[in-house]
Amino acid sequence: MPDRDLTRVIALTPDGPGARIRRIAANPDGSARNLYGLDGDFTAGPVTRVFATTPDDIPPARPPARRLRVFHVNDMHTHICDLAGDAPPVQRLAQMVERVNAARSAAAPDEAVLFLSAGDDHTGTVLDELVGWTASDFTLDPGYRALSAAGLDVAAIGNHEFDRGAAQLTLGLRDAAFPLLSANVHSSAHLIPGQHYFPALIAEVNGLRVGIIGLTTRVETRVGQASDPTLQVASPVAALTNILPLVDQLADVVIVLSHCGYGDGSHLSGKAAVARDIGEADFALAETAGRLASKPTVIIGAHTHTRLNEHGLDPQNIRHGIPITQAEANGKFLGEIGIDTATGRITARLHAIPDDPTLGDKTFADTHIAPIIAQVTRRMQDVIGTAVGQDLTWQANRRDRYCRECALANFMNDALVSELAACDENRAELAFLNGGSILSGLSPGPVSFGQWFDVMPYSDEVFIVEASGADLYAILQSNARRLLRAEEIGQTDLGGFVARGFLHTSGALRYRIAPGATAAEARATDITLFGQPIAVQLDRRLPIAMTTYLALGSFGERWTGDPLSGGIPGDLPGYDLRKLPRRNTGLIYRNLLVDHIRRHGRIAARCDGRLTLDG
Fold this sequence. Notes:
Helix content is 22%, strand content 27%. By secondary structure, it is an alpha/beta fold. Strand 21 and strand 22 form a beta hairpin. InterPro entries: 5'-Nucleotdase_C, 5'-Nucleotdase_C_sf, 5_nucleotidase/apyrase, Calcineurin-like_PHP, Metallo-depent_PP-like.
């Protein structure tokens, strides 16, 4: 057993630069009664000194528990419950609470229990509308409020925590009774380290010191937005290299909450039907931890929505001696890890959360989930218009969004251009939308706000990007290469996320794609803009409306100039949308389209030939 006297590691008198440790508030409904936050800059280099202000800020020496049980979730995306029209909701979090509380109640004297989230607790259901976009329309943070009541002990910061801006995230923290962690997020104008989050902490649970480090993906986090221009995400591998040796000295067990993704460089399983760029991720983190850690260490992963260790710890998920876990996404599973601190033996498994509305802790659901549902139900059921025809259904969208013209994408692009036409300062002549931004469809008949939310659940603002006719020509050539080809369709889950960034356009732009024998040979031809050949408009300047996600390069979908991803062979260069002048209008994409539907009453669109395919 390691030395329990941390006064050899922690100094009470500051002596040069280093990290600070101090006792912080713990969730009163959680297991960790004593939490000690580490505050310092771990992005610039290793930190070897740690200082406390008072002896109370040093985790006490107590006989440690021998066994640790860790329950974990990731990528909940506000699926604390699943709402389906008038049917009773599936109480996902209430089912988890039942299991976690049973483990806490039955814990042996030498056993400690923790409940953790690896991030992305936002963006995915209509409940997110309660978060709002500004301080004036913030109501509550449903994910953080419910997880607090569930007794969550600690959460990592995921990339989707920044979807509505860091300022809005700080408002949501009012509902978080647990601390947030990230060792590589820095320089936000709103989210302040040591105040709103910590790089890492020590949780003292039944005498056991558990070091917990948070890491955030740098690939898909929205940096450079006008509302927080200085926000940055450093290398997660570098941050772990700098912080792990210190945490290892302070803890009996180390947990890395990694919202960086399963794999390294690219990822094939989970929410991507084909390979997706994830940058530095869990495999590289495991290599780093395996080299630096002396205590039992585990990575609890997230971001790629990967189902790992469903029936027990899979040997292929142990890399460099470090087990990697992940519990898919959207509350479908609750992960469990067991650690024997004496032997270092680690076990892992997943508990399925059934789609059964009769299951779960009813008292918890009635007390904590029902009031949240009540606040959003009226808006969710509000009818905003009527869908006309079969071309808007999910069956049609699944078939079309990655490989041909898509009627619903046509409607969305044309509606956006129409809404912006009345705003001189935000006028757009064209609109682009990537196929992966459409996540559902509409059956003929009345359409509620909740149904439209399911179509476009992402929290995007509208950017205006200025391009020339020559830029547009180059963009369409890149788009032709991104097409999901005929020979690939039967091998691809069209209902999943295909990381190619294939774009749909508004009606003023018409063209043909000649797929060729390979993606490298694909070409956009017969391009016309407002009825005239693009060749005579190469110098024309065009304001183009698009989502936040696309204007920032669409990350793993590679509108960043990097080689195309999504299983496209040959390292074909992509087009970098980020090099074009752009500005954030501050307008909310979904809200603009809802206003358009309300005014016109109908959602009617068809494939009109703006994109045709040879063969």
